[in-house]
Write a structure and sequence with these properties.
- There is one protein chain.
- This protein folds into four domains: about 1-125, Rossmann fold (3-Layer(aba) Sandwich); about 175-310, Reverse transcriptase/Diguanylate cyclase domain (Alpha-Beta Plaits, 2-Layer Sandwich); about 325-425; about 430-535, Orthogonal Bundle (Arc Repressor Mutant, subunit A), CATH 1.10.10.
- It has helices at about 10-20, 25, 35-45, 65-75, 90-95, 110-155, 160-170, 195-220, 245-265, 285-300, 310, 325-335, 340-355, 360-375, 385-400, 405-425, 430-445, 450-460, 465-475, 480-495, 500-505, 515-525, 530-535, and strands spanning about 1-5, 30-35, 50-55, 80-85, 100-105, 180-190, 225-230, 235-240, 270-275, 305-310.
- About 65% of the residues lie in helices and about 10% in strands.
Length: about 525
Amino acid sequence: MYRVIVVDDEILVREAICENINWNQLGYELVGNCENGKSAIDFLDQNEVDVVLTDICMPYVDGMELSAYIHTNLPETRIIIFSGYDEFEYAKKAIRYNVEDYLLKPVTAFELSEVLTKLKESMDRNLEQKNKMQRLRKVYNKNRLYLKSNVLLNLIKGSQKESEIRKELDEIGISLDFQAYRIAVIHTEEAGVNESPEEAKKQSALMNFVVYNISDEIIAKANVGNVFMENDNKVYIIFHTNKPKEFLQISKVICEEIMETVREHTGLHLIIGLGSYVYSIGEMARSTDSAMQALLYGMKFQDNQVIDMEQLQDKIKESVNISEDAQELALSVKLEENDKIDKAIDRAVYKIKSAYIEPAKTILYLQELAQSVTELAKSIESNDHSIKIKKEELLYRIATSVSIDEAACHLKKFSYDLGESISAQKNTGQKKYAVMAMDYLEKNYHDPGLSLNFICNYLGISISRFSSVFKNTYQETFMESLIRIRMQRARELIENTDLKNYEIAERVGFTDPHYFSISFKKATGKTPKEYAKEVR
């Protein structure tokens, strides 16, 4: 429907035209009527109108002045004049203002309907032509964007000779003759998990196109590079400069501006990997590789940040020690102290993040942390099958987490659940003392002075009370646990080392090698020498 208004100072004429024309049938919608040109201009300033039917002789602003205003300010709006004046001067002015038709009053409904029908046909043809041009322009822009992206992708991935790339850059009108370059890769958060795969794919493509447009606008305004997309919906930036030292911080600031602008307008969270500087277009693949590496660091740590490889080099470490955090985590699970579980995991995660461990290795460190907890689960799996399922699920979730923070959340949840399960299977009266004693025993079994009396003094509890609590908790006495752990460690040393019997005895807390041999045979049915001969 085309929107139309009627302008005439004679109310009877206005009403007759408004009421006697079948607007909808002709393809029009009557959206207003005005008593003079001034009120018509006010209406046009506030509303979209396709056709204006106007008289000439009106107070304040007449029909010709109204036509002049429309011709200057609203060139897409069509004008039909009806007047009681059959004068050549009016007709000349009407032609000058591109008036569609000039009708003499009185105007019949049939006559005006014919004019409106022809005008609609003309506007339909123009609209179709306009839509066709828009479609062609869209196809052209899409193809041009694809061509540009394809050439620049080949450039930053080093998949073509430099001479070939330069020729293609000239063909698409891009000049890249600068002193230094660096590549940025932008990753957009995944589409909603509740979407179907097809819908998620469309959503991701749409989000990345929004990111591309915002990035392109900011980069073009700063005149610092080129932005393009890849088929997998990644967005890339080629930064270029003739002042590398000054530009080091600027490129990161621009990436942060892109990140914040996208977040403000769409709520999307980005990770941007910013590659190292290179000094010729033939080296761009090296900058791309470092940008992708930076992106992987960002994806494993947290979202909405810029990872700059130029500033990251000094922070990267080969390894990190989280063994103490793993031990404290295990003890906290045994004691069912969730706040300490959180602290132990958070400390370990902080160490891993601060060290900027190679992304692939972060999984190994997280699994080391998880192993300290899953070892505890072995003792209760026979009574609680769900723990075994949760343990397997935990290891899978850690391996597939998109960030270290997500993996840490899974580990915390498992630790809470395991602590509850352990608690349900143990004597709840004084279990804390038994758990602390077992933890001390496992860490200090090699101390020859370790005894029941010593541990009770250490815990501040009577021997009789402690013995009862410990036996109820672990179904064996403290000394039985001590001997069992010492014998287990002794077997491991015999199996994996060439140490002599007296050396092994010392390492597991025996001052008398003879007594060690007696205890070992009692526990295993063989002397240390017999056992060594068998396993070695």
